[in-house]
């Protein structure tokens, strides 16, 4: 079981996504061809770093922003284009920054 929380941070990188999963001193990074694929890669890293779901807390962020990740991920999951996903990400990031 992991102590503390696990962070999965996603960053657009050209047409791909870079995902970094961090827990304590352990860190794994991968590139994926879309946000859904990046989330799948993060899930694999999470299972490797903290097997089993009991007591595991995972925080998913898009370039450090949880609201932006949720918005972009839901857009991608509903089959919208990568461009629509990036637009949702930009809007969510702008909204979150305006609220600070």
Overall description:
The chain has 100 residues and is an alpha+beta fold. It is 45% helix and 28% strand. It is built from three helices and four strands, in the order βββαβαα. Strand 2 and strand 3 (26-32) form a beta hairpin. The longest helix is centred in the last third of the chain and has 18 residues, at 82-99. 26% of the residues are buried. The model has no long low-confidence stretch (mean pLDDT 83).
Secondary structure tally, helices: 3
Q: Return the string of H and E elements.
A: EEEHEHH
| Spatial order of the strands forming the largest sheet | 3-2-1-4
Radius of gyration: 14 Å
**Total domain count:** 1
Which helices and strands occur, and which strands form pairs?
Blueprint: E1 6-13, E2 16-23, E3 26-32, H1 35-49, E4 58-62, H2 66-77, H3 82-99
Parallel strand pairs: 1-4
Antiparallel strand pairs: 1-2, 2-3
């Amino acid at each position: 079981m992991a102590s503390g929380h696990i962070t999965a941070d996603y960053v657009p990188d050209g047409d791909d996504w870079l995902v970094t999963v961090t827990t304590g001193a352990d860190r794994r990074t991968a590139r994926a061809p879309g946000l859904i694929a990046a989330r799948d890669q993060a899930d694999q890293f999470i299972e490797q770093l903290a097997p089993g779901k009991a007591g595991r807390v995972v925080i998913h962020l898009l370039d450090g922003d949880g609201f932006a990740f949720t918005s972009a991920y839901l857009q991608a999951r509903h089959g919208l284009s990568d461009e629509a996903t990036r637009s949702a990400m930009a809007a969510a990031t702008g909204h979150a920054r305006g609220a600070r």
